[in-house]
Amino acid sequence: MKPKLYAVGVAGVLAGAGAAWLAAHQPSGRPTEPGALLTLLVGASLLGSGIAAWRARPENRLGLVMVLTGFAWFAAELVEARAPWLNTIGLAVQSVWIIGLVYLLLSFPSGRLPGRLDRAVVIGGLALGLGLQLVAMLYGNKTGLHCPGCANNLLQVVHDNEKAKAWIGLQHLIAIPFIGAVVVLLIRRWLRASSVQRRAVAPVLVAGCATLVALVVTVILDLFGDPLGALPANLYFTLMATVPIAVLVVFLQRRLARGMVAGLVVELGAPGDAASSDLRGALARALGDPSLELAFWFAAEGCYVDGDGGVVRLPDPDSRRRSTLVERDGQPIAALIHDPVLEHNAELVHSVCAAASLALENERLQAELRARVVELRASRARLVEATDAERRRIERDLHDGTQQRLVSIAMSLGLLESKLPGEAKGARPLVRETREALTVALAELRELTHGINPPLLTERGLPAALDELCRRAALPAHLDLALDRRLPDRIESAAYFVVSEALTNAAKHSHGSEVRVCASGNAGTLIVEVADDGIGGATTTGGSGLRGLADRVEALGGRITVSSPPGRGTTLRAEIPCG
Amino acid sequence: MRVAVADDAVILREGLSRLLEEAGFEVVGLAADGDALLELVERTRPDVAIVDIRMPPTHTDEGLQAAKIIRRRWPDVGLLVLSQHVNARYALELLSDGTDGVGYLLKERVSDLDELSSSVNRVGNGGSVLDPAVVDELVGRRRNADSPLEHLTDREREVLALMAEGRSNRAIAERLFVTDNTVEKHVKSIFGSLCLPPSPDDHRRVLAVVTFLNS
Description:
heterodimer; A: 5-stranded antiparallel beta sheet; 10% strand; B: alpha/beta; 6 strands; 52% helix
């Protein structure tokens, strides 16, 4: 323990002894004041817990706040002192400990006042508790300040008993709604807090609110001449003593939580894949934050990804979540996305991160792999879409350009043919021949464009296009359709070409007599099936056409299966997810 | 005979219009899309409207939709739908509303002046025209061995295809270099084999034949 804290402790003991002596020898003889024991208990609780908290968490201001509040608490007993200057100090700081309590409650657990409203409340409290007190003391004599047996107050300028009483009365009247407002503020904060935050602040908030309520009740009863005697004051003194203890309990709980880190190390070191399968769970338990999320650094893309490889955005600093980055050898590995309350316990978070860094690195490598797979899948799907778009563009260009131009040439030839005079021997048949050759070329071009992108598929969708495909099939083909809506182009296109290829294969290799084509869409999956009654025995490896189609279907997240038992026909089945 | 032409490609509308005039038809107006065609038909009431299937704004089957509207509003206007693709489905959709004065042809088919002239005349006179490529697809469709079509002779299949194209007995006879009587005999035999009720009317039998082929 540092010498500074020893000094504070010694000063506290002296202050406590003095205050207890004064409380025991009250010259004021106020019957409603709690005795020396309770006074000592509250002060000791504040100073003791304050010193302990200060030692445990030096960076947190709350230890200091509690120590100061403890001294203010003892100083308030100075009103009983006989020396006028001591009495003056005692009178002046009568209510300062309440402001300390309010600050403590509003700033818990960080020790900093989170909002402008909180700061305004504390400043208002100072004006009320210290400012009005000093104003009252300008007029105050002993009786005016409820202190009949006290020494003279050095600040007294005018002797006006009534005015002093009025100022003190005003102070008490304002104090009632003021403290009520603080309680409302705390309750509102409680309601808005996350479950982790609630758990962290509960003991302090409950003890603090109870103290404030008891204090208000005491002040109100005081206005009516203390019908219950010393009971309410005793009650709020007792409750007040519990507040610093509650603060200390919460702080120590966190220290206990640090013990969990050891458990974490054991858990992560356990054989088998139990650790990696629930790294997040283990970390969440160690940190006491069930909402904890893990994000892993994906160096290739310079972003964070989740365990499945999906991109994760770290929360903004002003959002309701916080992130802590984990590094290893200077390289980022992962980020913990957690409740803001963990920020006040940075040491715990850091020790947990250190303990888990190897496991996190492991997990990161896996996540990176998955992210690459996700990326690859997306790029494959983009390729398929680009190919489809390109097919459609080529077909449209041929239709609007070359085909039209050739047709118009055929028309011109037709016109020329009829305009040729009868005597142009040999020219007419030549023109006709040319025109007919052009017609053949057009028919070939038509077949070609049809193969590139069947117009009916774009214009009328998959059912119509499959119907057309079955009409044109080289084997009698029966079509069963159970599709009730248009699907995205890439899916319809893939299904179409699967059926087209399967029909071609059936005609070429199956030696069957007919084919059955089924297409159905349910539960977000399009299923197309082409089954022939041929000899079977087909292999999936044969035929680059089928391999290409399988690639295409897999790029869309689907799969193709071929079942072809010898002698029992071949069934090709494609399943394509369609959202 | 008065004809309206709709095609979004200028070279094709102009080319077609020149061919029609060469063949002795009166071209009452040209349109570049479905809406313009409807307006043109309402204004000029032509005997025949020649419509390209793929037109703006959707570039899918605009022309077919316009043709269906014309069919409903002005049933006496003959319709000859042109396509760059062999699309049996569109042809059948068109015929399903009644085969009188309806035709479906591939675009290059009309470059033959005789073919154009005979098709426009047939449609204008309430007959039907179905492109040979479409008929090929219907007739050539693979069927099970027990289909009655499988039992027709080659000659009968030829006659069946020509019937489906919308040709009259006389035209079939000319095409096949046989007498009208021979054609009539073939037709009777075909209708018997396919168990279709005999239909002496050249116009109406197209639907029966096409319906059978499509089943």
